[in-house]
Amino acid sequence: SDTRTYTIQVTRLSLGYSDASLGNLGVVAHSLTTEFESSITSYAVSTLAYDESSIRVLAAPVYAGTVMRLNGVILVPGIPSDPVSVNPGDNTVTIQVTAEDGVTTSAYTIQAFRPGNPRLSAFTSSAGALVTPLHADTTDYNLTLVPYSTTSAMVTVTAAQADATLTLNSSQPITSGVPFSVPLIAGVPTPVTIRVEAPQLPQ
User: Fold this and answer.
1) Residue 85 reports pLDDT greater than 90
2) What distance in Å separates the CA atoms of residue 126 and residue 170, rounded to the nearest whole number?
3) How many CB atoms lie within 10 A of CB 125?
4) What CA–CA distances, in Å, run from 172 to 12, 152, 188?
5) Measured between alpha carbons, how far is 85 from 23 in angstroms, rounded to an integer?
6) Tens digit of pLDDT for each residue in 8-28?
7) Rounded distance between C-alpha atoms, residue 89 and residue 163, angstroms
């Protein structure tokens, strides 16, 4: 009699084939506000500095073969991502995760808050210079003594954040980089108070 033998290969998928979980997630030089757990997909990072314009994300999947993407760029497990830009206000960074099966997906998010920058970056005056140089975290200054013949001064201030709102002496709007006049009275100190309000941009 004639015989023929058929062989059928049956492959059982690996445990991680359809698992789109991360095994680790973090931000370089910052801490997450809650401890990472694979089953939790939403996180926040500690508040950034006002001048911190980008962050770098660290991530690793639970199983090899899982693909992670940030802004369309594949992340290498354990290697910091390219810098991700953050604007003043709330920012959401999303890591897209695709399991080895190419079908199962998940998304992990990190909320990053960057405060606005209500500071001046430059100050000039036709009446003289500041006694001490302008510094980001100093708000009180004195101008060099002004001659008696000087009855007014043209002052120009520049905001560090381009869209900041400037107010002179609590009521007069002024524009960053545009000179304004300050009348001077002989023998009487003239306070020049500048309020800087830096908006936080929604993302």
Assistant:
1) yes
2) 22
3) 18
4) 74, 17, 21
5) 24
6) 988 776 666 889 999 999 999
7) 13
> In sequence order, what E strands does 72-200 have?
73-74, 84-85, 89-98, 105-114, 120-125, 152-159, 165-168, 172-174, 180-183, 194-197
**Mean pLDDT of the residues in the chain:** 92
Report the sign of the C-alpha dihedral through residues 34, 36, 38, 41, in that order.
positive
Average of pLDDT values for 163-191? 94
The span from the CA of 36 to the CA of 23, in Å, is 9
- What's the average model confidence in pLDDT over 69-73? 95
Q: What is the pLDDT of residue 203?
A: 40
Amino acid at 81: S
Q: Which residues pair with 151 in a beta bridge?
A: none
Give every CB contact of residue 58 below 8 A, 6+ residues apart in sequence.
Answer: 24, 25, 26, 27, 28, 78, 79, 80, 81
- Listing DSSP states for 10-69 in one string gives --PPPTTTT---EEEEEETTB-BSS---TT--EEEBPPPPTT--EE-EEEEESSTT-EEE
